[in-house]
Amino acid sequence: MPGVTSDSGEFNSLSIVPHSFDTQAPKVYPLHIHSVTPPLARLSISWARGNALRVCVLQSEDTVQDEKPGGEVVEVKLTNVEGGEIPDAQWRRIAYGSVAPFALLQSRKNSIDTSHYDKDWWEHVMEYIREINSLLGNSKPSVSSMIEDPKTVLKKIEEPTSLKPAWELMEMFYADRQSQTWIPERLLDWLADFDCLFSATQPTVHAKLVAFQEELVTIQAVENDPEYWEVLSSALAVGWLDVVVKLLRLHGSYLFDQLGTREIENGLVEAVALLISQMPRLRLVLPTEKLGECYNTKPEFMKAWEKWRGQITKLDCSAFWLQCDHQQTRVGLKNMLQIMLGNANVLSRVTYHWIELYISHFLYIRPFTVVSATFIIQFPLGLESMYSLAQKCMHLKPISNRHKLMGLLIGILEENTEVVLAECSRSFGPWMITHAIELLTAGSTQAEILLHEERSKIGGICMEELHRLIYAQILSSHAFTWNIAPIYLTSCMKQGLGLLENLLYKQPVQYHQVLLKSIEICRLNGLDDVSCNMMKIAGVHYWKHGKKGSAVFWLQQARDEVRLNRIAKQLYNFVGKSVSDESFKQWEGMIELLGTESKTAGGLEFLKKYRDFRRSLQQVQEGITIDDARKAAEALISLMRNPSTPQQFWLPLLYDSLKLLNWKEGPLLNVSQTNLLLNKLQELSLARLLPGFVDAELPPEALKSVRLALATNLGRAILEEGLNPPGSSRLKEDFLCGISHDSPHARSSKGGTVEPSRMGFIL
Amino acid sequence: MVSKSLSMPHLSDHGRRLPPPQSSKKPTSKLSCSFHRLIRTVFRPTKRSNITDNDDASFGKEGFYVDRSPGISTTPDVSEFDGLSPEMRSFQLTRTASDDSLLPLNYSIVRRREFGLSHPAKAHVRTKSLSHPLDIEMDKPILTLDKGTRCTAWNYSGQRLAAGLADGSLVVYDSMDPASSAFTCTSRFKVQDSSILKVVWVPPEYGDAVACISADGTLSLWEEVMEDSEGHHWKMCKSFDRSTSQVLDVQFGDGQTCLKLVAAYSDGHIKVYELLDTLELEKWQLQAEFQNVIDLVSKFGNASCLSASISWNPQRSEVQQSSFVLGFSSNTPPLNSPKVWEFDLDHQRWLPVAELSLPEDKSDQVYAVSWAPNIGRPYELIAVATQKGISIWHLGSNPDPDGRLSVQRVALLSGHDSEVWEMEWDMSGMTLASTGSDGVVRLWQSNVNGEWHEQAVLTPAS
Amino acid sequence: MALIPSPKPYSLQIHKLPQYTYIDALRWLPHISTFTRHILLATYDADSSTSSLQTLISSPSQTIPSVALQASVSAPSRIASLKVSPSQLAPSKPLIAAATFSGSVLFYSADLINESLNFEFSVPDKGFHSGAVSGIDLSENGSECVSVGEDGRVNLVSLSGKRDFRRVFDSSGLVSYSSVKWASPVEFVTGAFGFGLHWWDQRKAGGPVALFKNNWTGGIASGIVHSIDIHPSRKHTCLAGGSSGIVVAWDIRWPKQPVMLSGVGAGDAANSLVESDIWEVQYDNYTHSSKIINSSSSRVLPAMICSEDGILAVIEQGEEPVELLAEPCAINSFDIDRQNPSDVICSLEWESIAILTRP
């Protein structure tokens, strides 16, 4: 079985993935503390947003030095990417850039039915792959354009990150179905781009070339330098034809002065150069800067290849070699011919890294290796031969420490999706695995089934979702990237929303911007109760911190009637309770805030009525028209009727409106209205006896004068309503006399409608 | 592109060079004729379209070979697909990128066969290889604490840290900005004379407030408010009357509907208080008082508990009844084992719905309990730390006839081999972090196969 | 992702330039030469948790405008709002006012020739604002700076003479102001929570002279006014943008009839454009000649908006909005080059800025 075969013999070093986990001891990481020294009293832990763990290290008491602090807090970010390769800012750029392609692909996936081999589905996938790839490509396009510095360009070429090659490997084997007919050539191009990555750990053709290029400036007659020929054959072996030809053209025999004497030699060189530049290559397209002749279909290619090989053999056994008296040239060229003729020994001699040997085998020994484009569908068929060859090459070129790309490549070649996935997540991190899953599932049925199978052991989610959750968690640990996590979470069927809610609950909503952006996320994902809760938290925070306006606003937004009512009660204690009070101006704004909200204002709606009443009352104060007065009276009554009018306002209201109660041009309130007010007054006097009664700070005679006014008004009202029921007139008389000259016998006088209690109460 | 980077910039330096090959082809001397002959002999089209046998032989002699096999179609295991191979071979050879029409046909067949073969064999590989290992990206110090700090607590958003000091004062550190990880001390005030043992933040729906447990066992609530006279300041809004026994642990729960406070006392009693007024933290009402035992009738008089650990179900839904898990470390075995308490609306009382310990471990003293956030699992996850180690429990969601929830211990993890101080789950409930008297932080995870294991250890190092 | 409305040969040019740091605010600086433009950025670097002001120099002559850092100074806190006023005396030294989240206003002068940013002074924090300063505006002649905050205070900072502030109004937290804009040397307009728009006149102390009833959303939604603009040629009309995609023009002369340009209340095609917060509004002077002709004085001038859901667009009364940019991330702020209104810069949530050149 693939995946098991790799565990045998000396390949253990290569496939560390499958059997790493049972025996693995937990990795130990030092937690760098600076100001605190052991002995430590206590460690205390707390998860911040996402996967950031805050460890609080407390200094133990017994080592008391005065300069020492009591402890320190260290924040640790947990992730499974081997960090350092890419700086944070770059990572964020990649994270930002991959959101749109990912989201687009998801939406298309949902729209298209699951027939994955639908044509335009493939186009979508390829578009996705290309966009991600371009993202990984040049790390800083803008910056390089911003700072015109060629160095950055060079640097970029010298050190590509290992993300791009990994992505391209998976692209060529899993997704890009057009390239599958010419995988060897794809691999060749791939190596040409990324061989430099392996140079760091061990000798490579690339390293040799770079080294030689530096010398080149100083060397005069290159052909005498053995290096020259080594580099030539190495470059040829891995198929960097353009480089080879360029180098050949540096051959001394091309020089004017030499031409006469060394024409045969030059001829041979040129012949080899031409042969190389005419090498048939089985691929769809050939970039202009690359040499060789491109053949799309295998039959044509085979024919061309035979022909080409024939020519090489011809040249190899031609007589001109004898006439070439420059020994190095002869040997060197011959050696190159051997390479082109596929001499295995030579190939393994001139290549360094096993992958280079691997490529050279494809080029010159097994030129007809074609991986059918159907191999994807018939996993694990198809790569067997490539895999066995890879093993052979690794035997020949064992490597001390393996580059993580090799692990991925082997995983792909042995067609073990588990290994591929594990390598992805282990070596390239959550970002890679999350985005590569799209590519794998699109390409390989095995991968798709593996990734979409629900697993009860991890809470009933599938691998795909698991990896998305992990990635989202990493995103949410940074203040700049947390708000793209929702995109990935909403693509998680089962647990995405749950995690999103937890994420939102951890947002510091006392910061205006954070709150607004969180609410927007809730709006987009229909998490109304979550946003309500956040607005509640904000409202309470503002209320407790003296920003009453914002508090009321957010609690209104949250439709939190309970708290609004409580707030109302407290607010009234602040409200100035007399018309003269200037401070009431401040409230205008608040009242505006409550405004014509269709939303609940809780007990606060009283404020508006109160304001209106005061307005009209003020008008009464200034210009006196009967209409104003009537309006004011109406307002007063409606206020007193309104249950939401707090008790402590009753007396002040009445006191303020004394002018209305004893109005010159006859009473403004009819009997029933006056009775209402009297009842309120009575309630008040009863309430006074209860504990917790808030007494309005008013002149002591306030109550008395209000009573008197009400009594007078009642009397006049009765007069107004006048001469109806008989008997009422009698009452009226002694009632009035009772008021007018406040005589004791008036108290004794019994009145029909005015029962004793009321009488007593009035006086 | 490597090819570009190696494009010999200094090529032009050697100026005397001819631009070959064209110019070198000019017919001048007789030598050049010979040169042309050479070129011709090499490039003249041969009559035979392909190389003769003796050519091959010569190759063989010199140890060369040309593998003319069209890669795949001759690989041995094609024989697996006898039924398919002919059509597929042709298919492969004639294939161009354009024709997808054939695909669905042999797609399904092959797919089925392929999985029939590989599935069982691969099972073991998968479980091991597919996990999500952790790694430490970076660790950076974000703040240094005042002298004599005894305990700390972060608020809900990790923007504020409250630290309790040995001299009984409380220090609050704030970050100026949601994105910044720079913290500064914003206020420091005296809570009481004795040292502060534990600080717990009140849920944010009720303001910026903390509960402080002091060494003398008193419990008090402090709140940050702004009064027009003096700016922001912390004022005590409630001091729970000091009963005979000390408060060991306190946790707030159910932030949504009505704030509840559970306090565990050194005499093994549990008190549940309810907040009466959503806006004032002054008014609390004792809702229930009971002991941490399954059978509600039995009472234990002279119990003395060293420590207690409470953890509310972090679920924030109104539909679900509020519940918490509580365990003691006491001299009275029946009190120790962690029990899950749920509020029974119908009878308005708290009921023990589950006990998280195996029969033989019931008397084990409990160091810490922690209820994992549930983002969609069908079961709840609770971690319990005793001297036997950290055990992970699954708690079923639907109760059996007599109201009990099914429990299952899925792992017993040994690591700290000593007292466990704290345990906390991350926001997804996938990773458990723990600290203990061995002075390290340990991180625990389950792999894809549901096997829990220690993933990483963080050891403080100067 | 840039969505270009018309694929004409002379179509809109968009260039996105990653900054690798969060952009809190940005402004064009006045031109000093025809070959160079200067951009002012208020940035925040999370890795070092430091905020700073930067001037970038860009050369529009090139096909791909490149920007280079010219000068940078670190700021004590993150910048909530940024305003620039050309100084009459030295055109190469514009005045910069920056409101901070920590509750102070900082004044800088940028020296575009000697490539430096110089801190001039900051308002004494004592009793200025408690909490963040949510909005500031510099008067036309740069002699006064009005500032508002969530604490409900309105302050005036005088830049001439003794550089101190005076309290215009203090609602002691009963109202929370979110934005402010000068209407005339003595008048300004403030936006508040609950879609409150208040018109202030320094000659009349003790409170706003006009309150804009917030019934223009028909009570469908309440929200916050994030940004206000007033056109120098039409000082009586104030343009306000805020929550749930609402953009309204309020003419002080007809306070009863606000003109809804976009948002839930608008009830026509306009409201489908943006549903999320509108972070900034500015009158768009860059209009085609035809529009200028038929735009009567009663008609609201075209306005540019940027929104949380990543839209940068020009909206005009009774016309289909023109999308200049549709980003996958929020567009937090933008600025139209006063001297060359075809150029627009905007700051994208994802740590980058975009430079737009309109045909």
TrEMBL record, chain A:
Recorded superkingdom: Eukaryota
UniProtKB keywords: Membrane, mRNA transport, Nuclear pore complex, Nucleus, Protein transport, Translocation, Transport
Protein transport found in the keyword field: yes
Residue ranges of the region described as Disordered: 742-763
Tagged with keyword GTP-binding: no
Stored InterPro entries: Nucleoporin_Nup85 (IPR011502)
Subcellular location: Nucleus, Nuclear pore complex
Pfam families (alphabetical): Nucleopor_Nup85 (PF07575)
Subunit structure and binding partners: Component of the nuclear pore complex (NPC).
PANTHER family registered for this protein in UniProt: FROUNT PROTEIN-RELATED (PTHR13373), NUCLEAR PORE COMPLEX PROTEIN NUP85 (PTHR13373:SF21)
Function summary: Functions as a component of the nuclear pore complex (NPC).
Family label: Belongs to the nucleoporin Nup85 family.
Name used for this protein in its record: Nuclear pore complex protein Nup85
Species the sequence originates in: Rehmannia glutinosa (Chinese foxglove)
Lineage: Eukaryota, Viridiplantae, Streptophyta, Embryophyta, Tracheophyta
Automatic annotation (TrEMBL), chain B:
SMART domains: WD40
Organismal lineage: Eukaryota, Viridiplantae, Streptophyta, Embryophyta, Tracheophyta
Protein name according to UniProt: Uncharacterized protein
Cell compartments where the protein resides: Nucleus envelope
Recorded family membership: Belongs to the WD repeat SEC13 family.
Pfam family, one: WD40
Superkingdom of the organism of origin: Eukaryota
Keywords: Nucleus, Protein transport, Repeat, Transport, WD repeat
Native organism: Rehmannia glutinosa
PROSITE patterns: WD_REPEATS_2, WD_REPEATS_REGION
Disordered: annotated span: 1-31
Record-linked InterPro entries: Sec13/Seh1_fam, WD40/YVTN_repeat-like_dom_sf, WD40_repeat_dom_sf, WD40_rpt
Gene3D superfamilies per UniProt: YVTN repeat-like/Quinoprotein amine dehydrogenase
WD repeat feature ranges: 413-445
TrEMBL record, chain C:
Domain of life: Eukaryota
Compartments where located: Nucleus
Main localization of the protein described in the UniProt heading: nucleus
Keyword terms, alphabetized: Nucleus, Repeat, WD repeat
InterPro entries tied to this protein: WD40/YVTN_repeat-like_dom_sf, WD40_repeat_dom_sf
PANTHER family xref list: NUCLEOPORIN NUP43
This protein's name: Nuclear pore complex protein NUP43
